[in-house]
Amino acid sequence: MTSTTTLLRAVMRPGFLLSTWPWRGIAYTLTTAVASGLLWLVLSFPLAPLALAVGVLKAEGARAVGAAPHWWAGTYVSVAVTLSLVGVGLLALTVPRLATAVAGIERWRLRLADDAPAVARRSGNLYTDPATWRSVAYLLLLGIVAPVWLGVLGLAGLLVVSTPIAVHYRLVTMESTGSAVSRAVLGLVLIPAVLYLTSAFGGGHAALARLLLCCEPDPAAAELVEVTRSRARLADAFDAERHRIERDLHDVAQQRLVSLTMQLGLARLDLPSGSPAAVAVASAHDHAKALMAELRDLIRGISPQTLRELGLRAAIEELAAGSPLRVHVDVDPGRFPPAVETVAYAAVSEALANAVKHAAATEATVAARRSGGMLTVQVRDDGRGGADPSRGSGITGLADRAAAAGGRLLISSPPGGPTTLRVELPCAS
Hints:
Strand order of the largest sheet: 1-2-3-5-4
Order of helices and strands: HHHHHHHHHHEHEEHEE
Largest sheet: 5 strands, mixed
Helix content: 55-70%
């Protein structure tokens, strides 16, 4: 067990009676008694008609010899046996679900007897999962075996605790004052023994419950969770760095390029028309304007201002308006988490770019729907298909970004088309 302290271990440590563990042991044992009693009633209820039938048979057998049995006795016994058999059958069908529910309550109750968190067994199909049948075994233990030791323990505790009270109020007859005092002192001395005994039995029961109902935390699963978190942190760091680059390009590089373009334009106006210098400056001016347009497109691709300010729908509509394809946009309105919008926009941008460059498409459809806690973005084009993500492309990077956001990317691109790219991203309502 990974727990550092359990009720069973606390019993064997010095200073047990001065800690909170005796009270936790009493609380756990008392709640075990309540749960055990309720389960005993549930498990024995189908046998109640059969017990009444046995009583009727005994009553009929005790009648005078030669007396005719009552006319209803045989019918009552038959009905009682039938009801018991039907009840047992129904109970057998419902026991797995009942055991699963009881196991959940028992794992919660284990906090009284164990400082370690109770981890549920891994579940599969209800009737084929071994954890279900371990829960059934514990259910039978709690409803059939536990009442026995709880009854013995309760009787012993009642006798010990009630002895000083009975002597004080003279509820029992003593031969002398000395014997009464000695019996009262013995009862007081045995109270710590009852506390130890109650905690020991409760701790043993808790250890058995943990063995049947719980499992140790899987270190491999913890590592996988940490890997997932690390990937998410890297994706967040990448987004932050991308936004920084976009700001630097927009605020510094683009502004300097605009200033350079304006200076070249003014110099072009001052030079004689047709001179070699005018031709060179005009060519530099045209190149600067083309570079400024490319830089603007680059900045828009890194972190579109429309996406940040107006949301996914407006950004996709802007993207569709600038595409050489006929793009039909059907996107749910409203805002989504920034990370989700960024990945969704990147997927649409990549899909439309691939449709133009590689698929020779003429038309595309972009749809984005929020359903429950999931945003589904789908891009479909009428190109020639044949996209292969295994060769390494922007689609592979998109798949990694979608996975880092907790989603997935799927693509269907048979030879001859069409190509369908689908991104599913978890999205808070």
